[in-house]
Amino acid sequence: MRTLENAVVVITGASRGLGYAIAEELGFSGAKVVVDYVKSKGPAEDLVAKLRAGGSPEAVAIQADVSDPAQAARLIEETINRFGRIDVLINNAGINIDRSLKNMSVEDWDTVIQVDLNSCFYTVKAALPYFMKQNSGKIINISSFVGQAGNFGQANYAAAKAGIIGFTRTAALELARYNVTVNAVCPGFIETEMYTSIPEKAKEAILKRIPLGRTGTPKEIARSVRYLIVDGDYITGQTLNINGGIYM
After folding, report:
1. What is the pTM of this model?
2. Where does the pLDDT of residue 197 fall: very low under 50, low under 70, confident under 90, or very high at 90 and above?
3. CA separation for the pair 23, 9 (Å, rounded)
4. For 143-157, what is each residue's pLDDT tens digit?
5. How far is residue 180 from each of residues 67, 157, 159, 174, measured CA to CA in Å?
């Protein structure tokens, strides 16, 4: 795909954080962006208005909790009904419930796995027939360096993000015959709400661990996603690490 102009892009969890930045990056480049959200209707609609004014006149917000397979399927169906196709699926939806294993409940575990990992399967499963019919498509799954390195108090999050990497590689193998590429992006510590909620002393300790000495920006992640879409036709099954060197 050499241009984003008129490409239909679905972004899960797009009303804030990395999803918001990705939507801006792609929408301002002319893509028809579907902004998925669960509860943040106001921010999602504000983002759509911003995109429509800035280069994506057909941008739309769709409410769907992609941790529910029926709602994930509805998100894809509504996209197809509106635009007739889907060119790019970006699985960005994610949450964290951080506790040590000693204090983590079964519900804490299940909730994060369902939102962060299972949702990727649900959306890909729903979109696959359309990708196959088109004989084209790009899937980008947002993982994390935590899925590669682990992190204290994040067993559920680490397991989900590691699962995304394995899912990505298998999907890439299976979907290559349909000219569909599947890749994962693994951000390090990025300036999002998730990071800014960390106590200052903990942030100081984190910065000491990052060789480049700073956190990343959402725009840096968004640009990597854009690269995989526009210039990544021969890239599949890969994990793109954007983490300042915290995991090598």
Report:
1. 0.97
2. confident
3. 9
4. 999 999 999 999 999
5. 23, 27, 26, 9
